[in-house]
Specification:
957 residues; mainly beta; Immunoglobulin-like; Ferric Hydroxamate Uptake Protein, Chain A, domain 1; 22-stranded antiparallel barrel; 5-stranded mixed sheet; 7 helices; globular
């Protein structure tokens, strides 16, 4: 088996081999910038070509162009653009293996085109374009382009986000900005707020958006009037790919080999015929004739057994060899001329199947002693099927429309075999099984329009959107076998393992659980931008500026339905004849009859196992950007949001109950920019933002959280949290596509919403409370720099460095007492004396985050080699108390290596090794309660993901 060191050496040798081809290279590169001779502004979309060849390109958002594979020798460059005089630059000497820099300008044509407005579709997906967008923003922002995404081989939006300064990932799918949990982020897809993918919280699962569908990701860290007011970490905007600048078609295919998984023998639950597409075929669902309530009279054990046996006996595990990972992608873009109109389409179809085996060690402590100790053998398969279909229409230079569609289907199957010892409860050996399938579907559609009025000062854009998410867990089966503990090496014959049968139906012991979540979001929005007065070019940066007024409205209606049911097997009399049978036989139809010595089947669903909810959000804003002198620009804004939330369910006794609240929030903001030079600036910002309680947090009834294995009760007294945000950042742009920034931030929370442990006769439960206050502050550094101007080495000149680091501090103060709800929903004031740390860091807050990347790009040979590094500091995984100390997630160093090689004009090879070091994923419990991880603190969960080696080809047609 290849070791991490072997993989590093192999890729290093490949890099050396490819770079050695430079000496034989017979082509060079011409690169440069095209500007307006008079205004010195970059010209976007100018055509640049080598005379007598088919080599050409268009300038990007920064006026930058690159012509690769230009034959060595004397060449002539031709630059042209509508309403400008064509320029010819002769006698350029191109040397093999070298880059020639040509910066030039164009003069306006002497024959002006009357009453013609020249417009084009703005390029947004390159590194230069994203950095330019960050520079021109009036607030603190960071971004990742699809050009950079391709270099990293990241497969979804979650993996992409971890490359951004101050961003970390939780559970491989939730994004944390500046250490703040997902509840403090607003996520927009094509400028429309996304629905929630989670049952009990407002959170968006970023693994649902494949990387191949993304044009760019922008994260705004300071507030402004046009952004949603509910955030403290950041506003994350995902944009899907747009209609292309030119026609293209490509097909990509790839495979992956994961260490300790691929081709290994694994145990997997029985699946459905459509699992390979990410869909459940319906065989896991409850039959159509199942009663709404199993206990409806005339109820008998025999009748219940009849319904039990309508469910197929799928408990047995199948042995198989884990297949390699597989990826397939098809992308096509077309641009059409329809008379004076232009239209375009972009289609992206992608498929992926990923397999993972994990050997997980688990320990549960009671005090300083181990209470339970297990080993989980877990095998999972994740299938993703995605489609992006976007349309673009330009009616005339002033009016354009887009219709964007994204559909993504994910199917996740997981089989867990747990073996170990329960010391505290019964001193027994345990062998438990969990067989789970989860289906997640997302559709998001937006119709967008952009209009420029004839006065050349007013722009209007609008959006209407519809999104729906459906998440189902059909037939999650769990069962536990136990026997008296056998000491290894002891004499005697061990007892047989027998099924543990609870006294009441239980989804975790011999139980079957079903759930379904559907959330629909309908949105309309409109924005107006109006130039006040005339622009002037007195700015130090050379750009034209003027007073600008922005105003807009946003309205959203969100509806959610959630329903769950669970059933459990129980014994009738002495079941010794059946409870010791193996897993594939124990619940066979002949053993579930409801008669003496057999099993019966009962429903345990409580009235609060379902709920429906709605949320109405109406917002309006106005802002004014005012330039002062040649260096300063200020933007002041006010946003007002009215939010009305309602949750309907039933209490345990079946009594209908409703929770909810209505809040009007005025949210001022101020953003200031001081331009030091055309390459440097300083920003400062203030914004007032909020964080509202979510559906289930407000509901005055208890519900069972199957992931936490705990009862959770809402708190109808929760208040909206208020946050004051301060940001400052220095930015320097040495050259096109380069950036260096250093920033600091401070956030003060009033009434932050936190999870709170309850002590009940049945054990620990959770509710939600408003803590007294919290603080969050830190510094962030980002560098994107090419070495081309720093060295004469032809090898080093082709390397670019991208790095960012964050140091963050947070502290939450629970106060002396909090208002907490009991399991009946009644609220009382609780003392927090039993909390381990009355003042502690925020949950999931990492004190530091580091991302580093070195990118080697040899345009002549078509070779790219990228080395990427990521680490996240220790963070609280679960807040503890004096009886159950806090659990931390330990740091983990991750290194990825990526190689791309152009084999021909139409064929490209990609190879990568992800997670080269394969360090363990560890959760560590702070048993000595000193608020940090020590060597003496034990790991309560530990496993290795396995390094993943991938190989793929891309064909261009």
């Amino acid at each position: 088996m290849a070791t991490p060191l072997t993989r590093i050496i192999t890729l290093a040798l490949l890099l050396f081999s490819f770079s050695s081809l430079e000496a034989a290279a017979q082509t060079g590169t011409i690169t440069g910038v095209v500007k307006d001779e008079k205004t010195k502004e970059a010209i976007i979309g100018a055509s640049v070509g080598v005379q007598g060849t088919t080599i050409g390109a268009s300038t990007d958002l920064d006026g930058h162009f690159t012509l690769a594979k230009v034959p060595a020798g004397t060449q002539t460059l031709v630059i042209s653009y509508i309403s400008y005089q064509t320029k010819t630059i002769p006698n350029l000497t191109v040397e093999g293996g070298k880059a020639l820099l040509v910066n030039t300008s164009l003069s306006e044509s002497a024959h002006q085109l009357a009453d013609v407005v020249v417009t084009g579709q703005r390029i947004t997906n390159t590194e230069v374009a994203v950095i330019t967008e960050v520079k021109n923003a009036q607030l603190v922002a960071v971004g990742v382009s699809s050009e950079q995404i391709v270099k990293s081989q990241d497969r979804d939006a979650a993996q992409i986000a971890r490359r951004v300064p101050g961003v970390s990932i939780q559970d491989n799918r939730f994004v944390l900005v500046r250490g703040l949990t997902q509840r403090y982020n607003s996520v927009l897809l094509n400028d429309i707020l996304t629905p929630s993918t989670e049952v009990d919280s407002r959170a968006f699962s970023f693994d649902m958006i494949p990387s191949s569908a993304i044009d760019r990701m922008m994260i705004y860290k300071s507030g402004s009037a046009e952004l949603p007011g509910e955030f403290a970490g950041g506003v994350i905007k995902l944009y899907t790919k747009r209609a292309p600048q030119e026609n293209f078609t490509n097909l990509s295919i790839g495979g992956g080999f994961r260490n300790k998984t691929t081709l290994e023998q694994v145990q997997q639950a029985q699946g459905g015929k459509l699992d390979f597409l990410g869909f459940d075929d319906g065989k896991r669902d409850l039959p159509g004739n199942y009663p709404v309530q199993l206990h409806v009279p005339p109820f008998t054990a025999e009748r219940a057994a009849t319904y039990a046996n309508q469910m197929p006996n799928r408990w047995g595990l199948q042995s198989k060899k884990a297949l390699p990972d597989f990826r397939l992608g098809f992308n096509m873009g077309r641009r059409f001329s329809l008379g004076e109109k232009e239209a375009g389409t972009m289609t992206s179809l992608n498929y992926g199947s990923y397999n993972q085996y994990s050997d997980i060690d688990l320990s549960f402590y009671e005090g300083q002693k181990v209470g339970q100790q297990y080993n989980d053998r877990t095998y999972s398969t994740n299938v993703r099927l995605g489609l992006v279909q976007n349309f673009w229409l330009r009616v005339n230079p002033r009016n354009s429309f887009e219709f964007k569609n994204l559909f993504n289907q994910m199917g996740f199957s997981e089989s867990v075999t747990r073996e170990g010892q329960d010391i505290t409860s019964s001193d027994s050996d345990v062998r438990a099984y969990s067989q789970r399938y989860e289906s997640r579907s997302l559709y998001s559609g937006q119709l967008l329009g952009k209009h420029e009025l004839a006065n050349d000062k007013t722009n209007i854009d609008w959006q209407s959107g519809f999104s729906i998410i459906r998440r189902t867990e059909p037939d999650w089966r769990r069962v536990r076998y136990i026997r008296p503990h056998v000491t290894p090496g002891s004499e005697g014959v061990p007892a047989e393992f027998g099924v543990a049968l609870p006294s009441d139906p239980n989804p975790t012991d011999a139980g079957r659980f079903f759930s379904e979540l559907t959330e629909r979001v309908e949105t309309v929005a409109a924005n107006l931008t109006h130039q006040l007065g005339q622009k002037d070019s007195s700015s130090v940066s050379g750009e034209e500026r003027g007073m600008k007024l922005k105003a807009g409205v946003y309205a959203e209606r969100k509806d959610r339905d959630f329903a769950s049911r669970f059933f459990g097997y129980q014994g009738v009399g002495n079941t010794s004849g059946v409870r010791y049978l193996p897993l594939d036989q124990v619940f066979a139809p002949e053993n579930v009859t409801g008669t003496e010595g057999k099993f019966t089947y009962e429903e345990g669903t409580e009235p609060n196992g379902r709920y429906d909810a709605s949320n109405t959000l109406v917002a309006g804003y106005a802002s004014l950007m005012v330039p002062v002198g040649s260096r300063f620009t200020g933007t002041v804004g006010l946003r007002a949001e009215y939010n009305d939330i309602k949750v309907n369910s039933r209490r345990l006794d079946g009594t209908p109950t409703q929770g909810g609240t209505s809040v009007l929030s005025p949210l001022p903001s101020l953003n200031m920019t001081y331009t030091i030079s055309d390459k440097a600036l300083v920003r400062a910002a203030y914004a007032s933002t909020i964080n509202r309680p979510e559906f289930r947090e407000l509901a005055p009834f208890s519900f069972y959280d199957f992931n936490l294995n705990s009862n959770v009760v809402g708190n109808y007294t929760l208040k909206t949290a208020n946050i004051h945000n301060l940001d400052a950042r220095w930015e320097y742009y040495p050259a096109s596509g380069e950036m260096i920034s250093l920033g600091a931030f401070y956030k003060q929370f009033r009434n932050p919403i936190e999870s709170f442990l309850l002590y009940t006769p049945s054990g620990l439960s959770n509710t939600f409370v408003n803590s007294k206050s919290a603080q969050n502050y830190g510094v962030e550094l980002e560098v994107r720099k090419s070495l081309s101007e720093l060295t004469n080495s032809s090898f080093l000149r082709r390397i670019s460095l991208v790095g960012n680091a964050s140091y963050i501090f947070s502290r939450v103060d629970l106060g002396e007492t909090v208002l907490a709800a009991d399991l009946g929903g009644e609220v009382s004031r609780e003392n927090v004396a039993d909390i381990q740390d009355q003042k502690r860091p925020l949950q999931n807050q990492s004190p530091y985050l580091i991302n580093l990347g070195a990118y080697y790009d040899n345009v002549e040979t078509g070779t790219q080699v990228n080395l990427l590094y990521n680490v996240v500091g220790p963070r609280i995984f679960a807040v503890g108390n004096r009886l159950n100390p806090t659990v931390y997630e330990a740091p983990r160093n991750v290194i990825d290596l990526v190689l791309t090689k152009r084999l021909s004009e139409k064929l490209e090879l990609r190879a990568a090794v992800q997670d080269v070091l394969n360090q363990p994923v560890k959760l560590v419990q702070d048993l000595n309660t000193n608020a940090r991880i020590d060597k003496s603190d034990p790991a309560v969960r530990s496993f290795r993901r396995g390094a993943n080696s991938t190989l793929g080809l891309t064909f261009k047609f």
